[in-house]
Specification:
By secondary structure, the chain is an all-alpha fold. Helix content is 71%, strand content 0%. The protein folds into two domains: 1-191; 194-349, no CATH class.
Length: 349
């Protein structure tokens, strides 16, 4: 009887910790969306200093606002893009970047305090403590990487490096995926009774493909490559345009040639769509049931919505609302793919 009660209590505690991780994952999702809004509204370079420990409070007094605006005026974005900006306009872009950074700090607190509580109550074994510790450390590194990205736009060119932007987004997705992965294991107490190992390798490959596609999407965003070649399925009037490898050395075209970067993202997105359809059909043929079937159906639905959003964003020349929805869709797609992968794997602790 005591053993049964202990198992029930253990499962209940695991579910509580899983809910905590899902909440943090939802906050990371919101952070990615807010980051997209910040980038698309050209607000990300409005804060030219990084004060990780003392930057909690916004400016309240006029003199403080004026000091911040004076500092902003010394950097390339003001000099080359916003030379006619007044203090009121500066406040508009400042608030978005401030909220983006503040939200990152809030995520850290929402993660750290329950972690300490669960650790102190003895709910966390050594292996799980290591996983939670990794989450916390990598979350802190994400803040450092965010500032490293911003710094690239404070030198000569009033735009952040597409490399650093892509790295920043990719690390956010890694954190998000890991939170979901561990959370799903805790929620089910690592018991996935509908697992189909035949799907695991394919599902893992799909997760990697989604990461690569999202990385390429960040390169598109960093280069503003979505503002040109706004037709689909043809690009510059053909399926495979000329000029994709004009830069030297050749490999640099994959990261800096606007035509090549957009073409790569198109191909990766189309490949992801086909991979999801193939995985869904394979799961149907295997008779996937339970949580795995729900995850596969959700994956099929999300990929249709995501591809539709991507095409509309391109054809309409990147309206902010659609662009943000498309970025959010990528995060949702990754989350559902992680769910499929976790459901497909046999029980493991």
């Amino acid at each position: 009887m005591n053993s049964v009660l202990d198992q029930s209590l253990h499962a209940q505690r695991n579910r509580i910790m899983a809910m905590w991780l899902f909440i943090v994952a939802a906050m990371v999702f919101a952070m990615v969306v807010l980051g997209g809004v910040t980038r698309l509204s050209h607000s990300g370079l409005s804060m030219v200093e990084w004060r990780p420990l003392t930057g909690w409070l916004p400016p309240f007094e006029d003199v403080t606002w004026r000091q911040l605006f004076d500092k902003y005026q010394a950097f390339p974005e003001f000099k080359k893009k916003n030379a006619d900006m007044m203090l009121s306009g500066f406040k508009g872009i400042f608030w978005l970047e401030f909220l983006h950074r503040l939200w990152g700090r809030v995520i850290g607190v929402v993660f750290f305090l329950p972690f300490v509580f669960f650790l102190g109550r003895g709910w966390v074994n050594r292996a799980m403590a290591v996983r939670f510790g990794i989450m916390f450390v990598v979350g802190g590194l994400q803040g450092v990487l965010g500032w490293y990205m911003v710094k690239s736009g404070l030198v000569d060119r009033p735009d952040v490096s597409q490399y650093r932007l892509a790295a920043h987004l990719t690390l956010a997705l890694v954190i998000y995926a890991y939170l979901l992965w561990v959370g799903l294991g805790l929620w089910r107490n690592a018991e996935f009774t509908a697992a189909r190992p035949e799907l695991t390798g394919w599902a893992a490959g799909l997760v990697v493909l989604i990461f690569v596609t999202a990385f390429s999407g960040a390169l598109v965003a960093g280069l503003d490559a979505g503002l040109v070649y706004n037709t689909f399925p043809l690009m510059d009037g053909v399926l495979i345009p000329d000029g994709m490898f004009e830069m030297s050395p050749t490999y640099i075209n994959l990261f800096e040639n606007i035509m090549t970067v957009q073409f790569d993202h198109r191909v990766l997105a189309e490949t992801t769509f086909l991979a999801v359809v193939a995985l869904w059909l394979y799961g149907r043929r295997l008779g996937a049931a339970g949580g795995l079937a729900r995850a596969l159906n959700g994956l099929a639905l999300v990929i249709v919505l995501q591809v539709t959003l991507g095409i509309l964003t391109l054809l309409l020349v990147v309206p902010i609302t659609l662009a943000i929805a498309h970025q959010a869709g990528a995060v949702v797609l990754l989350g559902v793919a992680v769910w499929v992968l976790r459901e497909s794997m046999p029980t493991r602790k």
